Amino acid sequence: MLWSLFWVNLLGTIYGYVWYWNQLIYTAENLSPAYLPFVPDSPTASLFFTAVIGYLLADSYRGLAKQPKPGWVRGIIEAFAVITSFKYGIWAVSMIWAGAYQGDAVGWQGWMLTVSHLGMAAEALLYLQLYTYRIAPIFIVAAWAFWNDYMDYGVGVYPWLPESLEDDLPAVAAFTVELSFISIIVAFVLMKIRSVLAKRQV
């Protein structure tokens, strides 16, 4: 199961960066190369979740019988994966079908992206008992999430939208910020649930 998720996420990450390739080139040439980290939102989320699965695989190979001790780097990677995978999983599906509601055609790529991004949101919840992050990494990733929102809609490096949604940009921006709040709350709730479950197992 873990190996399957690892390869699915890794290949999906590569596909995602290829998907953003034209926008990455446009951003570097017309805005600034410094903005590039803020462009490919979904593939960066899946990249971090791939790293989380790598940690879980390493735990299984070491034969850990209980949850490993939390570390700063791992905690930040896990919190980043949970918050951004949930956020952009929901965001991408919402944008695809908001565009469809306004008349855009949803071809096979739209359906593929819908399934894959719903999977991103779902898998962020899948291993809640095995995460190690605490509250500090949540705050660190929250700061990144809101800064990324500012870069997207304040600077203009948001993912290219269906044409029908371009005139709805203020609503899209507001929805994205709201999703940031919701995703941060989800990460916090998962941490509290994990804590309760751990106490019951003691």
Automatic annotation (TrEMBL):
InterPro entries registered for this protein in UniProt: DUF1405
Membrane-traversing stretches: 5-22, 42-58, 79-100, 106-128, 135-151, 171-191
UniProt keyword Transmembrane, yes or no: yes
Keyword annotations of the record: Membrane, Transmembrane, Transmembrane helix
Presence of the UniProt keyword Lyase in the record: no
Entry protein name: DUF1405 domain-containing protein
